[in-house]
Amino acid sequence: MENAPKATRLFPKARGYRLWPAKVAEPSSAIPGTRGFYYTERHLQCVWFDAALRPGNLKTEQGDEIVVEHPGQWNLEDGPDFLDAVLRIGPDRRRLAGDVEIHIHPSDWQRHGHARNPAYAHVIAHVTYFSGAAAAVPTSRRVGTIGGVIQVSLKDSLAANLFFSFESLDLTAYPYTVREPITPCVQVLKTWGPDRVADMLESAGEERLQGKAARMAGTFASQAPDQILYEEIMTALGYKNNRAPFRYLAEQLPLETLRKASGRNTLKAYALLMGVAGLLPAQTPSRWDAETRAFVRQLWDHWWKHQAAWSARALRRKNWKLSGLRPQNHPQRRLMLAAILFTRADDLTRSLTALNTTSADECFRQIATFFHLAADTYWQRRLTFAGKRQTAAIALMGTHRVAAIVTNVIVPFLAALGNRQVMRPEFLRHLPPEEDNQIIRQTAHNLLGPDHNPDLYRSGLRQQGLIQIFHDFCLTDRSRCENCVLLKALAEACEA
Hints:
There is one protein chain. By secondary structure, the protein is of the alpha/beta class. Helix content is 42%, strand content 7%. The longest helix has 24 residues, at 194-217. Residues 28-32, 138-147 and 176-180 have low confidence and may be disordered.
C-alpha cells in the first residue's frame, strides 16, 4: 500500500466539485476526534428515527437509562432535526417532551451556533455518534437539569449490535421534501449546454467515488485488501434489503476462514455460507424433485461438520428480509455467486489488479465474466428450491447489478490500491450505467426538469454525480430550494 495515492488525489476532477459552495453537511473528517468516521448526520438521523435501528440500551452521559416513547417528527424545515419527541429518563422514568438535535460530535452544538439560536430553545436531547463533553447550552438549560438538554452518544450502543452496519442503511427510505414539478435549478440549467451539465455531473461523480475509495483506503491498515473486497461485494450482493446480514456474514465468516474450511471447493463454501446464514433448509419436503433433495442433502453433508462450531454465531431466517423479493435476488442464489467468486483458484483481488485498464470497455467486459461464470451450478436452472427446473440458464446476477458493483465497489477499490488508470477521466466516462433508481430519477427531475433527455446521464459516473448532488443538497434542503447553496452557486456561475 506504500505507493497508494493520498485520498485527496485519487480523482482529480473531484476538486472541481469541491470548489462549489460548502456542503450542507460538513464532512466528519474535518471535525476533531472523528478521524475514520465516513458517515453523515443523515445516517444518524435514520438511526434515531427508526425503532428497528435505534439501540434499546441508550443512556445519558451521566449513565441514566433512556426510553424513547416517540423519536419526534422528522423536521424538514429550519431548526432541530426532530420535533415533539417524548423521552423517559432515569429510574423514576422522568418524562421529557421537546425537540431532538442530531450531530456527529458533541462540540457541533456550539460550532453550529445552536446555543444562541432561539429555534433550539425547546431541545431536550442532543444525540451524537461520539461521546464527549456535554453540549454548551444557555445557563438556564444546563445538561442534566430538569427540563434541560441531555447528551446521548450512539457509538457504543451501536457497536454492541452485531447486526448493525451504516453500510446497510438506505437513506432514501426515510422522509425528504417532495419537490415542485419545476424547480429553480431547472430554470438555471436550461441555459447551460449539455456538455457543461455533463461536466458538472462528472465532477460530482468523481467526488462520490473518491469518498468511497478514501473509506476503503482507510481500512487497509487494519484489514487485508482481500477481506475488504469480500465485505464490500458481500454487502452489495444484499442489494437494498439485505445489506446488513450479508455484511455481518462476511465479518463473522472471514474470507480466509471460508477458503480454509472449504478447501476452495465451491459447493463446500456455499454450504458453509448457507449454514452460517441460517438459510439452509432443515428438511427436504417430498414435493421437491429428486435433484433438489439430492442437492440439499449434499449441502448438509458438508455443513454438519461445521454446525456445532458456528451455531452460536449463525443468523436466523428472521434476520433476513425474504418477503417481497424477486426470486432472482434471493440470498440463497446470491450466496452461490459469493461462493463462486471467492473460491476461485486465482484470487479475485489478484485478478482485478491484473486487469488491463487501458481500455475501459475491455476492462468492464472482463469483470463481467467474473460474475457470469459458466460454472454448472444448481441455481443456474432454478429460482427457488421448490420451483421447477428452468429450460434456459438464469444468470446469478443481472447486467445492471454487475454494473452497480463495478462502479460502487471495484473501481473505488482499485483506486484505493493505487491504480491510477481507473482514475483517468476517459476511463471513468465509460463506467457502465446501473439501473435507474428513485434517487437518480428524482435528482434528474430536480435539476433538468420533467422533459429532460435521460441519455445525458446514461453513464455510471454521471449517475454517481446525481446521487452525490442529491445527498449533498436536495436531501438536506429544508427551504424548498429558497436557501439552497447549490442553486445560488449555479446562478452565480451563469453570471460569471
